[in-house]
Amino acid sequence: MSYVESVLTRLKEQNPNEPEFHQAATEVLNSLQCAIDANPAYEKAGLLERLVEPERTILFRVPWVDDQGNVHVNKGYRVQFNSAIGPYKGGLRFHPSVNLSIIKFLGFEQIFKNSLTGLPIGGGKGGSNFDPKGKSDNEIMRFCQSFMTELYRHIGADTDVPAGDIGVGAREIGFLFGQYKRIRDEHVGVLTGRGLSYGGSLARKEATGYGLVYITEEALKSRGDSLKGKTCVISGSGNVAIYACEKAMELGAKVVAMCDSNGYIYDRNGIRLDVVKQIKEVERGRIKEYADRVKGSEYHEGCKGIWTIPCNVALPCATQNELDEESAKILVKNGVTLVGEGANMPTTLQATHILQEAGVVFLPGKAANAGGVATSALEMAQSSGRLFWSFEEVDAKLRTIMVNIFKNIDAAAKKYGFEGNYVVGANIAGFEKVAEAMMAHGVV
Ligand code: GLU
């Protein structure tokens, strides 16, 4: 059995019932095989065994009281996965599906993603199985305050810097920051995605979606192509999907479909993003309402159908494992040329293989959606320097980071004989820096 296989076997034995974590670790470790073979010192140093074990896992109770006076208890998580290259960095997810497996897969992915940004940030992730849907602002505030009343003792601007993810946006970050500041009496960059009035960065909101489109454009450019005139399907309608849609349209693409967890809209004339923003950002409503407001558009129940719409470019920006084998086959049949992951691990392992075997350009999330966390690191830099950069400045840095990520993953794939395989390229390029730092630190 190879070193990689034995580490994976042990991981599955020691962490049963964590399918998403197994999936993320399997994808990464399998593609590291050649880099591991080239460096026998890694095995001697137990590098992979240490890499797949979080440095610290924090599980806590989050009690809160709803508007009717009923007491609720949710689970709180923070997995501080790896701090070899910088303080733990990664979002908080509030969604009923959250469990330890999901937080560990996200934290593990975050290590390599953050390394790929080229900035000094380690990997971590957290969240709760709390469902923000249908809750009042006061309920959200009380939940966030309770969550932070435990989390504050584990985080810090140079230790661990959480941010948003699914279910955690500007409103939640505001409440979390308010409680942290109240308890610690410190106005520091302990969270990113903050409001502009209290230390946030311009372009952070747009960064994940814009970054996804910048790297997509770069990948197309390397093939003498561009987004201009392309038909795009973008799943999701949260922060990532909305700003991916905005930038894709700006670059001349036509986005014809978006979705939420209930169903998808198809608008052959091109999505009207102002309507989506009004429904999702202002009213916190459902995407279904789009079809009532825009003539000629259709709404379909269920999300999976979105992948049956013919497109040149597909950008899954909703959630993990939303694009399966069956959908991948339909996309290929319909002539898709590029799939870029805006969400974390939205494509199953089987679907990824189908797309790659069919010659579809596949940009994995840890490279393609790294623009969000990269801009969080730019927010941290501004906080430490007590500076405030213009939108253009941050956006230009983001663009450069995404272009460099593409160049690095392309080069790493070529170096190990996997030209065009950006899954291998991203995993190796992300791994190399973390491995070097871990080796330098000794067995810790
Ligand atoms: N949740 C985002 C991600 O998956 C952003 C994390 C951050 O900004 O720290 O990378």
Please write out the topology.
Elements: H1 3-14, H2 19-37, H3 41-44, H4 47-51, E1 56-65, E2 71-82, E3 88-94, H5 100-116, E4 122-128, H6 137-151, E5 160-163, H7 170-184, H8 204-221, E6 231-235, H9 239-250, E7 254-259, E8 263-266, H10 273-282, H11 289-293, E9 298-301, E10 313-316, H12 325-333, E11 338-340, H13 349-357, E12 361-363, H14 365-368, H15 370-385, H16 391-415, H17 422-441
Parallel strand pairs: 3-4, 3-5, 6-7, 6-10, 10-11, 11-12
Antiparallel strand pairs: 1-2, 2-4, 7-8, 8-9
Bound molecules: glutamic acid.
Glutamic acid binds at residues 89-91, 163, 165, 192, 344, 372-373, 376.
Written overview of the protein:
Residues 201-442 form the Glutamate/phenylalanine/leucine/valine/L-tryptophan dehydrogenase C-terminal domain. InterPro entries: Aminoacid_DH-like_N_sf, Glu/Leu/Phe/Val/Trp_DH, Glu/Leu/Phe/Val/Trp_DH_C, Glu/Leu/Phe/Val/Trp_DH_dimer, Glu/Leu/Phe/Val_DH_AS, Glu_DH, Glu_Leu_Phe_Val_DH, NAD(P)-bd_dom_sf. Homohexamer. Substrate binds at residues 89, 110, 113, 164, 376. The protein is α/β, with parallel strands linked by helices and 444 residues long. The chain folds into two domains: 3-187, Rossmann fold; 205-363, 3-Layer(aba) Sandwich (Rossmann fold). 48% of the residues lie in helices and 16% in strands. A hairpin with a 5-residue loop joins strand 1 and strand 2. The radius of gyration is 21 Å and the shape is globular. The structure holds glutamic acid (GLU).
